Amino acid sequence: MKQGFEDIIAKVKECGKKTVAVSVAQDSAVLEAVKEAKRLGIADAILVGDEAQIREIAASLDMDLTGFEIIHEPDMIQASLTAVKLAHDGKADMYMKGIIDTKNFLKSVLDKEVGLRTGGVLSHVAVFEIPTIDHLLFLTDVAFLTYPTLEEKVHIINNTVPVCKACGVAEPKVAPLAAVEVVNPKMPVTVEAAELTKMCEEGQITGCIVDGPLSLDLAIDPEAAKHKGATDRKIQGDADILLFPDIHAGNQVYKAMVHMVPGMKNGCILTGTKVPVILTSRSDTFETKVNSIALAAVVAEEMRKG
Amino acid sequence: MKQGFEDIIAKVKECGKKTVAVSVAQDSAVLEAVKEAKRLGIADAILVGDEAQIREIAASLDMDLTGFEIIHEPDMIQASLTAVKLAHDGKADMYMKGIIDTKNFLKSVLDKEVGLRTGGVLSHVAVFEIPTIDHLLFLTDVAFLTYPTLEEKVHIINNTVPVCKACGVAEPKVAPLAAVEVVNPKMPVTVEAAELTKMCEEGQITGCIVDGPLSLDLAIDPEAAKHKGATDRKIQGDADILLFPDIHAGNQVYKAMVHMVPGMKNGCILTGTKVPVILTSRSDTFETKVNSIALAAVVAEEMRKG
pLDDT confidence of B2, banded at 50, 70, 90? Predict the structure, then answer.
């Protein structure tokens, strides 16, 4: 049975509506997304920012602000600190970027007093529903960590496994990707992929199955795996988590999927934080923003349950 | 007007049928492809290998061997040297891998006496027709060079520009890709991309327009380029050549396109050699093999003229 964002949204409805704190909310794309998230029963929003501007934009969108809490804070940095503190204090279940620039938004996330640090490594996960693939794909890291070390890759896996669980994947299969499916000392990423596999076999990485190095076809296409005779592999075209060698490979595959695969759906969050962080970009569609809020909501529920 | 493999095949018919020398031809997938290439008027083939086995496989495929030259050479290494010499001596216009392993096939390509060296760097190009994109995309290097240096990237561009020209793209636009579209000293690939751009502006790289670093969306999606306000860029979603940072990024995007984009068509050749080399893999479809022969044929014609 095909798994997709509809299932994620259905899951949120089961676990009860969440609350998202929006940092510098005077942005039409963000307000449209939180309006839809509220309509769908995914999340209520606390809008922190310039109240007059928020009301003006909402009016231009025919958006009824009844039921939205607004906290007036015209200064962007202050607004981000106020918004993140709501998440820090448990008054909000997720934290979302508004029109503030990414650098200052991340500063609020990392703020030592009111931010969302846990002591771990932050990483990004992009979740995809692809028409020809019956399960969700979790791509990491395509946007945040640039050249993750082996240790950081362990953190990335540990950050991403709970996201899979939140989406209903009990024991995700993790594919550390390379151009090839065998270890080649001249390609350090294949050596690291094998090390991650061993760490999982020896119980240093838990809650998932790691099998690498893998080429992308063996990771996502059961037919290709069969054709190449990969019958002894733990992953045979059925990977859940695609762990990329670096941000260039990850970002380029991510963008190939967004811009070339008709009918794909996606949503992204930042993980490794106290609560899920929604860091959508200007170029994300309305649907992606709503999907990201839904994704953050199921992850927030998973973290709450612990 | 959409450009695709049909146009490439039409072009071969204009320039006249070519001849492909096949190295160790006793392979059903390869024989089926050369049979189709002959039927379409793309190329005749000289089949070098074990004649009895070739005839047996052809019979099992209902393939009429009339019009195919067969050179009996049961030893694989000898067969590859005999076949590559045909291309070296100008008796064949392209050289194609049969059932011989890649390592020994490449040894024949690089053979100092009868091989196809030109003194330059060899590189691979994968040409794609994507339903939602109206021009061909030339991906390089997704399969051969692992971690190209700046100098090797110049060679890759110089190898790939004639392939574009052969396919009707007079002055291709080259996008050296990264995760971002601005130079960041912490990401060496962005620095190299900017250097390639400058080298082209200063006339050290000719016959094309280079603009990098570029993220994949700005390289292939005019809407994304417009949305991000990239109006001062030489490439605004209309790149022809996608130059990848390394083989991992290239190979993973290549496989994402092959395994996730419905209706895509592709073909691949090795360039930087005296004649185009067709090095398809077991996992390539029949159509990809035929497309690769057609691609090699137009490139052979371009090299003959040029």
Answer: confident
Closest partner CB to A251 (pick from B215, B221, B246): B215
Compute the radius of gyration of chain B from its Cα atoms: 19
Return all residues near B72 (Cβ < 8 A) that are at least 6 apart. B49, B50, B51
B150 within 8 A of B120, measured Cβ to Cβ: no
Rounded-to-integer distance, Cα B117 and Cα A138, Å: 43
CA dist B44 and B51 (Å) reads: 17
Using the Cβ of A253 and the Cβ atoms of chain B, whether some distance falls under 8 Å is answered with yes
A274: CB partners within 8 A, 6+ apart: A87, A88, A116, A117, A118
Which residue pairs, CB below 8 angstroms and at least 24 apart, start in A100-107?
Answer: A100/A23, A100/A24, A100/A76, A102/A279, A104/A76, A104/A77, A104/A80, A105/A23, A105/A80, A105/A279, A107/A77, A107/A80
Beta carbons of A252 and A274 less than 8 angstroms apart: no
Q: Is A131 on the interface with B (CB under 8 A)?
A: yes
In this prediction, residue B16 has a pLDDT band, given cuts at 50, 70 and 90, of: confident
Distance, C-alpha B285 to centroid of its chain: 15
Rounded Cα–Cα distance for residues B271 and B152 (Å): 13
pLDDT above 90: residue A113: yes
For residue A17, which of A297, A269, A257, A306 has the smallest C-alpha distance? A297
CB contacts of B175 in chain A (<8 Å) are none
ipTM of the complex: 0.95
Give the residue from A51, A29, A52, A80 showing the smallest Cα distance to A293: A29
Whether A259 and B179 lie within 8 Å, measured CB to CB: no
- Model's pTM, two decimal places? 0.96
Residues in chain A closer than 8 A to B180 (CB atoms): 251
Tokens of B84: 């590559």
Which residue is listed with tokens 């052809």? B58
Q: Do A216 and B130 touch (CB under 8 A)?
A: no
